[in-house]
Design goal:
The chain is mainly alpha-helical. Helix content is about 75%, strand content about 5%. The chain starts with a helix and ends in a 6-residue tail after the last helix.
């Protein structure tokens, strides 16, 4: 099952990256989504909440929440820069 899942995840990630590369509007959306996600992750980590992963018995610890929150804020900053600040080159 994992051998089948890995190529699917790679294909979806590559398709998403290509779409984000081509579309300024998608980068603007991702900037907001990453900002909100990062804020929620940091809030839950600061509150010391352990978050269960849906459909499994795995729990996300607050330590991992800090890492994910900072990572999402960095990705949000990158998406904000390429979506709002930097103007696309003339095609």
């Amino acid at each position: 099952m994992v051998a089948l899942l890995i190529p699917v995840v790679i294909a979806v990630a590559a398709g998403s990256a290509y779409a984000a590369y081509r579309s300024v509007e998608l980068r603007k959306f991702l900037a907001g989504a990453f900002f909100v996600s990062g804020g929620v992750q940091l809030y839950l980590a600061a509150a010391g909440v352990t978050v269960p992963v849906l459909g499994t018995t795995i729990q996300q610890t607050p330590e991992l929440g800090w890492i994910r929150g900072v990572g999402h804020l960095v990705l949000g900053g990158v998406a904000f820069y390429f979506g709002f600040v930097r103007r696309p080159a003339a095609s």
